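Hi R.,

Here are the chain sequences for the assembly we discussed:
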Amino acid sequence: MSHRILVVDDDESIRDVVRIGLEAVTTWAVTVAPDGETAVALCGADPPDVVLLDVMMPKMDGPATYAKLQDDPRTRTIPVILLTAKVQPTERRRYDELGFAGTIAKPFDPLTLPDQIADILGWHR
Amino acid sequence: MAPVSTAQQHESFVRWCWVAAAAVLALAVVATGPFDPAVRHQVSRTAVLTAGAVAAIACVWCVGRSAGRRRLAWGALALGHVVGLCGTLYASQAGSPTIGDMAYQAALLLGVVGLWLFPSVRLHGRQLLRLLLDSTVVGGSVLYIAMFAVTLRPDTWAQAPTPAWYNLPVLDVVLATLAVFVMARSDKAERTPLVLLGSGVVLYAVSDVMAVLLTAAEIGWMGGFVGSVTTALAARHPSVSDSPAGTRSGDGTPVPGTVVSFCVVVAAALVRVFQSARELPLAANVLWVSVLVAIAVRQVLVVVDNESLRHALERRVAERTAQLRALAAERERTLESVAEGIYGVDSRGRVTFVNAAAAHMLGVAADDLVGRPAHATFHAPDEDGTPDTPDTCYVTEALRDGVTVTAEEDVYVRADGTKVPVEVTAGPLRDETGIRGAVVAFRDITERREVERLKDEFVSVVSHELRTPLTSIRGALGLLDSKALDGAPERRARLLEIALDSSERLARLVNDILDTERLEAGRARLELEERDLDALVADAVEQVTVLADQAHVALRPVPSHLRVSADGERIVRALTNLLGNAVRFSSTGDTVTVTAAPVDDLVEVHVDDQGRGIPPDKLEAIFRRFEQVDASDTRERGGSGLGLAIARTIVDQHGGSLWAVSGGEGQGSSFRFTLRRAPSDRADVPPGLQPVSPTG
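And here is the predicted structure of the full complex:
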């Protein structure tokens, strides 16, 4: 089954690695955004099935972007998975409290990344 | 022979007491019963001889069981009984009462010596003088009573008694007096046998006086019998063989002695009252006056003693009070000088004292806290306003269970309502009656918490900065290693590029982290030399030329012809970081200029760019580690986030200052730092003056 996924990260290298990896091992349609504002705009225009969201980004960080998505009825139901290098226990607890669908720690294996996403969302691959 | 236990000795002594009581009762029955006087006389004499023999044997037995002065004492008593026996036998066989009386006098003298030899509590000075006065009072009183007995005799109404009349009574009195004071000065452990001895002697003395002066022979026999019996009992007492050989120092037992003394004096006074109508012999009046003088002197002595004692006690009280005041002042100084807050509570949990540090930390006067409930006063309520539970409070546990807690973290509340995190050590205050309070020491850990927070934050940031390039490397290599991209050479090339760039970024980051740590820990020693500033700038410019060319940014060092005191390698590193930073934040076609000018004995170096500028609120923050004007600058501009922090550390170590100047966003930036001019470059500074190296 083909899903549409939006990858949001200010680091171009990571955006490219995720995109190339997902496109190589799945049939998912991958879109990328370099910052939170772009991501909110893309989601509003064409809501994806899931958003992979970096935490530390300029201007609007991951939690702020998520809050924006929650404010908009069109994007409120989109599951958001954090893709982050900030994985201290206190940070993890904070993410859980904010209501993210899940957290994937950097560095990750791009070959198994689709399985991690599917497990979090209950998708069958 | 198996040793005899103390319990067995006591049982034996009790049996002896019963036997003695039965014998005394039997003799009393015979002496007072309706028997022929000759029979009574014979029975009494036989009883006295038998009792004397038994007492003599018992005393000899004690001689073998004791040592030192006790052995001599028991020996004298044994000899006295033997002499007395011999005198009685001789008088009865030869019919010579004079010889018998001489033997009795000798026996009594030996008894006096024996009693005197018994070890007693050692007395000195006024105590001894008072005892002698007591002896005088008691002895004189007893003798006065004896003289009264003499005057009862019918023949004394007609003739004055001669001194010879008093031989035996006087000896008896001396013996009785001595017995009383041996009892008074005896050690507690052997008081029973000595009281027995003394009582026997007193009884004997009284009966002897009565027998001699009232010509009642049976009374004398009875007294002699009882005296010998009590001597034998005293010799059988268990403490005789247990007593130590020496004498002891101490106060003795003044109360019983005083009571006995005054009882005897009262008895003598009553005699005096009853005899006031009769003309008494001169000796009796002299004796009575002597007793009164002894009483008066004794009382004066007691008053002097009491006054001396009172003064000594007052002096000691004053000394102890001064010591306690000094101790209290010392304790207060100690409490006030420690940096930790300390307070005490009583058994009800109310504050009893607060030191200055505690009062300062809580923003309240120490006196205002005394008497208030500690728990409600110090503990801050929970976030939701719920008061802290007293049951689980360490002060409650210390008071209730005697539990000591250390390094427990808590939150106290200041007088203005603000909270202060503290680390607490609390424990019970005990005395001989149990737990009477608790003492709590606490320290403000706000700064420590802040350091921990900064450390956690730094670890988090470093972790993030390391993981980001690592993620790209790991992902790119993982994909390249798989067969997923076999038919996509362009994507493979892009992944290789990502892996290489990220590896360089990671290496740069690791190097900068290590340099930062090394510089801040002070392990990298400065090697200060006179350096040509233009040469240092040229070296730095050369290192960033490639980066500048890629960014199409021009580098323009302006020669200053100045010399500085610097560690060349470090200053080149600082300049390289500043130039690299300026290039990264410049736009294509911009120019980065390096200039320097002398300011007094310093050189001020400027690295100016035409880049995007720095907001005023970031001018200082950008020198902190991993701090950027924009969070994405590290990735977008290629820096590690540590370059400016490293540059400032290097300049600081040279004793200079590094700061940023900018008109705001879009206005360009100027990074400026100072170094010491080299001595040879300064006309107004002595050549020997060198800059101080902070790393020594």
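The interface with chain A takes residues 456, 459-460, 463-476, 478-479, 482, 484-485, 488, 491, 494-495, 498, 501-502, 630-633, 635-636 of chain B (CB under 8 Å). The radius of gyration of chain B is 55 Å.

Let me know if anything looks off.

Best,
T.
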